[in-house]
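Sat 14:20. Reprocessing the chain from the morning session after the first attempt stalled halfway. Input below, unchanged.
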Amino acid sequence: MTSSRVLVPLTMFLTAFAESGVMSVWHVSPTILSPGGSCALASAANGGMDSPGAQSKYINGTPKMYCAVSDSLYQGGKGCGKCYQLTGQAGTRTVQVVSRMENSERLFDCQLDSFQAITGQVTSVFPITWEEVDCETNSGGATMHVFGAEVDTAAEDLWFVSVLFFNVERGVHDVKMTVGNRAAPVDMKRHGSRWDAENMGGVMKPIHFVVTMGDGEQVTYDASNDPEFAKVKVAPSPCSGEPCAQGMCRSKWNSCGSSADFCNDDSLWTPECSDDSATTTTTTGTTITVTTTTAMPATVTTTTTTHSDSDGDGGCIGDPCSTQSHCRSKWGWCGTTTNHCNSESLWCGSEAATCECNGNKRARRLRGQESQ
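Finished this time. Tokens:
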């Protein structure tokens, strides 16, 4: 799995202040995180205290330096994995957020080791000052781990995935999942430090996770080669299917129709796949200028083609496509498949070797012109 980073100026995520509050004891057990802990860093399903998300110095080191926090700091899970410097009557320590606590009158409910180090006591409630600080992380940097995936092995597509993010300095603010057969990102739901995508309807590779960290840094993880996705196929090109009749789309099941079941993000071919689906034509003398806008996922390409309007013997009766490797099919669409380029084509590009205009010899390429 590879990752790339982009720094986004989201200074709203940073805090740099010292506040007053109180802390108490959460539990004396060093393994309270398994199965407890709403951040899911050490949930039993993920391996308990052996989970990759539970290997920070604060959770697995000695002494234990982790706490549950009130809703004001938990923030629906955005606080998971963040670190705070707490100062009490016995000293100053940095602790990591691993869960939410119910008591709204206290800010921090800490494991016994950290409570003792900060207050010098083993019970009761004590005043502290606190401020958010960067967590100490290992050399691997921010890390993602896929904990579960549901794959339709027959269709070779993905329906559910659960991922965990850890070893971060300031927590995770947001996660978006992008896949090969969706133009829009897939929605992911936060469960503490874990993010799930459910009922995706069958998505395909490439699979990326775009993560906005708590400090605004954006990290993109390429998870296409993760073992959990080994049986997920690579999405076909959105224009890889054979063309349908006018106004119809070819669905992922390889049939044509005009309803939303056929015309959607999974379509193998749509009218927009034709390179002249949005064409404006102006004529001056014997020259026609065709301006074509082709819409593809995340890309818009504009091409201008000029050709002679000589009719010759009328063999090529269709309007030209904007690319010389394309042919205009008998249905009026441009493309490069055998359904476009054949003996019934209405127009043949100069690079379309298998195309014949309306039954004429293969040498005919441009309307009214012959190759020499």
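Residues 312 and 369 are 7 Å apart (CA to CA).
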